[in-house]
UniProtKB/TrEMBL annotation:
Upper taxonomic lineage: Bacteria, Pseudomonadati, Pseudomonadota, Hydrogenophilia, Hydrogenophilales
Family: Belongs to the DnaA family.
Record keywords, A-Z: ATP-binding, Cytoplasm, DNA replication, DNA-binding, Lipid-binding, Nucleotide-binding
Record CDD domains: AAA, Bac_DnaA_C
Family matches, as HAMAP family: DnaA_bact
Gene3D superfamilies assigned: 1.10.1750.10, 1.10.8.60, 3.30.300.180, P-loop containing nucleotide triphosphate hydrolases
UniProt-listed InterPro entries: AAA+_ATPase, Chromosome_initiator_DnaA, Chromosome_initiator_DnaA-like, Chromosome_initiator_DnaA_CS, DnaA_C, DnaA_dom, DnaA_N_dom, DnaA_N_sf
Name under which the protein is recorded: Chromosomal replication initiator protein DnaA
Biological role stated in the UniProt entry: Plays an essential role in the initiation and regulation of chromosomal replication. ATP-DnaA binds to the origin of replication (oriC) to initiate formation of the DNA replication initiation complex once per cell cycle. Binds the DnaA box (a 9 base pair repeat at the origin) and separates the double-stranded (ds)DNA. Forms a right-handed helical filament on oriC DNA; dsDNA binds to the exterior of the filament while single-stranded (ss)DNA is stabiized in the filament's interior.
Region ranges (Disordered): 82-149
Domain AAA+ ATPase: 197-328
Binding partners and assembly: Oligomerizes as a right-handed, spiral filament on DNA at oriC.
């Protein structure tokens, strides 16, 4: 009776949980009647403490409720293996991990490019303080340990918090297509075998194409397999801020100890190390120490290693040691799939026609796709209407209008040059005086907002500039719009003029 109840309970859980969660956490459990029990008492067994703790925190109330409805009044969750009925299926150590989303760890936001010297800027103030843990003895683990137990005093939440990972960015929530399948496969390999496969794994690609998502997915997968692995996600700007702080507070020992104590270092947007000599030096030594100890390093960047400007050769050559993979802009089908996946994650129904509308008009980056979907969902909520094609067109009319008018970059450049009384030729020139550079940045910003062109294509139209220059201009103007009323007014007027 109790075995049947357990089977029925599992069926209910299978129906109510995402497959990944069910396969990872519930299939790992087994059940047996308690000795001397009359078929109404059940011991549910978890094969290790990690699973025990996770199931207890997340699923046990629901499991107990189902069992009660199925006539099992007393059920207990314990550590142990089933003594009969075969070995329960073990959770897969494969990398398609799912980390429950109830932790409050947040993704470190990518801030705008910063070329200023390392003074105490707000970006540094808000950066994450390194957290050296002097009491922690150097790990002697090769290979990384299995998930057999977790120190009872450290809750999973606390361990997870230290990683700075975003629980929503997993392999499960990452849509795969031609644009990222190699990068994803390499990332899964690394997650499966940290420190032993590709070290470093270097992922590069344009803005908003999922590089950050991918390295969080690696971290989340490793954490799920073994929460004792010391993982840290850090944005390169925060690493830089940590270096500055260590310098100011003369705390380099603590800084070094902390970064070298990691088992997995996930460092995002390494192009921010450009021309920051001291940061590069520190990173060089941390890199060497970690790789020598077979600790895993994963790096993301917006360009191929050899194309990063202002980075020391010895660092660039090290980036080549492991595997370098690119993420490309997604093709239409993949963009449609991404919109649908994001809608599913938001818990909303979006028809193929709406997904297609968004995917067709927003081509260059996934973040924009997401932004458009959010706009449609917010619009529907606000008007209490279902998401139809008509509603989506209305919600996105600004974007579609810009797209349909096929505004050319040339037209934008001419309009901006007229407005600022400069020459169109200055849009292409290498001149960097403020009077020329600012209108050029405004024009780049407008080109990005009002045309479906990619950053490299916009850069090309502005005298063959690199896409990072366009990105920098875009971020600069976004920031200035918040702090400089005159510039904000200028942009507003130009938007009106160009949108007609
Ligand atoms: N293949 C994908 N499947 C699902 N979501 C994706 C995919 N690619 C990107 N995204 C989503 O798009 C958004 C932007 O991605 P992400 O921040 O990882 O880009 P990035 O390449 O790191 O950008 P940046 O260069 O600005 O740092 C995120 O919300 C991410 O979840």
């Amino acid at each position: 009776m109790s075995h049947e109840a357990w089977t029925a309970c599992c069926e209910r859980l299978r129906a109510s949980l995402p497959a990944q969660q069910f396969n990872t956490w519930i299939r790992a459990l087994s059940a047996e009647p308690e000795e001397g029990g009359e078929g109404v008492r059940l011991r549910v067994l978890a094969p290790n403490r990690f699973i025990l703790q996770w199931v207890r925190e997340r699923y046990w109330p629901k499991i107990a409720e189902h069992l009660a409805e199925l006539g099992i009044a007393q059920a207990e969750l314990q550590l142990g293996a089933a003594t009969k009925g075969g070995t329960p299926p073990r959770p897969s150590r494969a990398a398609s991990a799912e980390v429950p989303s109830s932790t409050d760890a947040t993704e470190t936001p990518a801030a705008a490019a910063q070329e200023s010297p390392p003074a105490a800027s707000p970006a540094e103030e808000s950066s994450t303080e390194p957290k050296p843990r002097p009491g922690r003895s150097a790990p002697k683990r090769r290979p990384l340990p299995l998930a057999e137990d977790v120190a009872p005093s450290s809750t999973l939440e606390a361990l997870y918090e230290r990683t700075r990972l975003n629980p929503a960015a997993t392999f499960d929530t990452l849509v795969t297509g031609r644009a990222n399948d190699l990068a994803r496969a390499a990332a899964m390999q690394v997650a499966h075998n940290p420190g032993a496969s590709y070290n470093p794994l270097f992922v590069y690609g344009g803005v908003g194409l999922g590089k950050t998502h991918l390295i969080h997915a690696i971290g989340n997968a490793i954490f799920r397999t073994d929460p004792r692995v010391v993982i840290r996600y850090v944005h390169a700007e925060d690493y830089y801020a940590d270096v500055v702080r260590a310098y100011q507070q003369k705390s380099f020992d603590a800084f070094k100890r902390y970064y070298r104590s990691l088992d997995v270092l996930l460092i995002d947007d390494i192009q921010f190390f450009q021309n920051k000599a001291r940061t590069q030096e520190e990173f060089f030594h941390a890199f060497n120490a970690l790789t020598e100890a077979h600790k895993q390093i994963v790096i993301t960047c917006d360009t191929y290693p050899k194309d990063i400007q202002g980075l020391e050769d010895r660092l660039i050559s090290r980036f080549d040691w492991g595997l370098t993979v690119q993420i490309e802009p997604p093709e239409l089908e993949m963009r449609v799939a991404i919109v649908q996946k994001k809608a599913q994650l938001l818990g909303v129904q979006v028809g193929d026609d709406v997904a297609f509308l968004i995917a067709k008009n927003l081509r260059s980056n996934v973040r924009e796709l997401e932004g458009a979907l959010n706009k449609v969902v917010a619009f529907a909520n606000f008007h209490s209407q279902p998401i139809t094609l008509e509603l989506a067109k209305e919600a996105l009319k600004d974007i579609l209008h810009a797209y349909n008018r096929q505004l050319s970059v040339e037209h934008i450049q001419k309009t901006v040059a007229d407005y600022y009384k400069t020459k169109v030729a200055d849009m292409h020139s290498k001149k960097r005086t403020r009077a020329v550079a600012r209108p050029r940045q405004v024009a780049m910003w407008l080109a990005k907002e009002l045309t479906p062109l990619s950053l490299p294509a916009i850069g090309e139209a502005f005298g063959g500039r690199d896409h990072t220059t366009v990105l920098h201009a875009y971020r600069t103007i976004n920031e200035l719009r918040l702090t400089d009323p005159q510039l904000n007014h200028d942009v507003h007027v130009l938007l009106q003029v160009l949108r007609g």
